[in-house]
Amino acid sequence: MLGARGGWRALRRCASLPRPLRLRVREALGAREPADAVRVQGWVRSVRSQKEVLFLHINDGSSLESLQVVADPSLEKRDLTFGSAVEVQGKLVKSPHRMQNMELQAETIRVVGPCDIWSFPLKMKERHPLEYVRQFPHLRCRSNALGALLRIRSEATAGIHSFFQDNGYVHIHTPIITSNDCEGAGELFQIGTSSEAKESAEKTHFFNVPAFLTVSGQLHLEVMAGAFTHVFTFGPTFRAENSQSRRHLAEFYMVEAELSFTESLQDIMQVMEDLFKTVTSTVLSKCPHDVELFHKYIAPAQKGRLEQILKHKFMIISYSEAVEILKQAPQTFTFKPEWGCDLQTEHEKYVVKHCGEVPVFVVNYPYDLKPFYMRDNEDGPQHTVAAVDLLVPGVGELCGGSLREERLPFLKSRLQRLGLTDAYQWYLDLRKFGSVPHGGFGMGFERYLQYILGVDNIKDVIPFPRFSHSCLL
Predict the structure, then answer these.
(1) What CA–CA distance (Å, rounded) separates 196 from 349?
(2) Bond prior to 381 in cis (omega within 30° of 0)
């Protein structure tokens, strides 16, 4: 009986012992004071064994910088290698090295998950090109570049939501499955059940109508703009473009906003510019080391250009002015610039270069170039709509927007000419019941990241790129 009591007392003493404080690498590096009992978990980025000391660097994804671990060589294990997952317990102390504030003096090292370094495609202390790690979508997040990119994506996402919420916008979850083609380009993914695919001859539909993956949440936002004056959405969109270019993805993210009671394209452009500058400032202030990685090794001059852009207003030119600039260009384009033709990527990049490598708003596009919902400017002899594209250096089009056609007779007439009246009867109803002047825009999130980081290929700014002939994982 006494033995049992003694056992319970021992258990109580063990339960009362202080458990090591779990710290993330970022927290450990930023600690102001040493700590006697801490626990850090992560993946080994480097191992260096000397006669009297063992050095490790471990990272858990919370920061670009890794935490240095100093240990007795007796703690070294055969499976303590680059890439292995570990848990280290010990004391957090001031580091004697200038480059690091704190380091961890290890008392125990436990290998949670070993890593076969011979078959692991990432190698210690090698700076792998983005093209190389793209081959390994299940492992590339462990590289410095993709780790930094994903932290930047996370902060930029939070910054976008904060911008809209701080300015009184209501966040709307627009559907991914839709029966509408907002762009009218016909480049949609049609969806169906697996049984429908086998029985396609019967032409049955799960929803009783053909359904597609969304190309834009705009039309659904317009519905909501009939009850809320400021709305936005941020989610995946899909385009079935048979392209493997550096600018295109089959699945990407779009930030879209709609404003009611606005009659000026200038109002839309101001929100675009404010969004860009606010989110970029947030990313630069919250992810300085991650952004510096890209600006140092991938786009050395981008930091200075961004800082200048944030200080100045974006330029505004008309589509007609852009065409004249292109016609007077000393170079020959693959696509000859003509009024009434869409601006190609080569045209957009030249216009931006001509304007001094700064973001440029191009406004008032030809009526016949743009979708049915854009507001008729009723001008002549060159008939235009109140549309705007934001062009940025190195990327081309970043944002696209317009005032929407709120006048029922104009909209009805255009839908009739296009043979779309029946399909968009609900859209006409919005103009019958309390219609107001309104407008909005969309910004490609991956193109935004491409631009601020100076990344050449859009496939390197999204965790799992989907494009023509490629859907890995």
Answers:
(1) 44
(2) yes
What is the band of 50 on the pLDDT scale with cuts at 50, 70, 90?
confident
> 62: Cβ–Cβ under 8 A, 6 or more apart, which residues?
24, 25, 26, 27
DSSP, collapsed to helix, strand or coil, labels residue 464 as coil
Q: Which residues contact 75 (CB under 8 A, 6 or more apart)?
A: 54, 106, 108, 109
Q: How far apart are CA 125 and CA 247, in angstroms?
A: 30
Side by side, which strands form the sheet with 190-191?
A: 177-178, 211-213, 190-191
Least confident of 68-77, 200-209, 301-310: 200-209
- Give this prediction's pTM: 0.91
Cα distances (angstroms) measured from residue 165 to each of 168, 171, 275, 279? 5, 8, 12, 13
Backbone φ and ψ of 75, nearest 5°: -85, -5
Nearest Cα to Cα of residue 398 among 229, 280, 297, 258:
280
pLDDT in tens, 393-445: 989 999 999 999 999 999 999 999 999 999 899 999 999 999 999 999 999 99
Give Cα 210 to chain centroid, integer Å: 30
The end-to-end CA distance of the chain, in Å, is 60
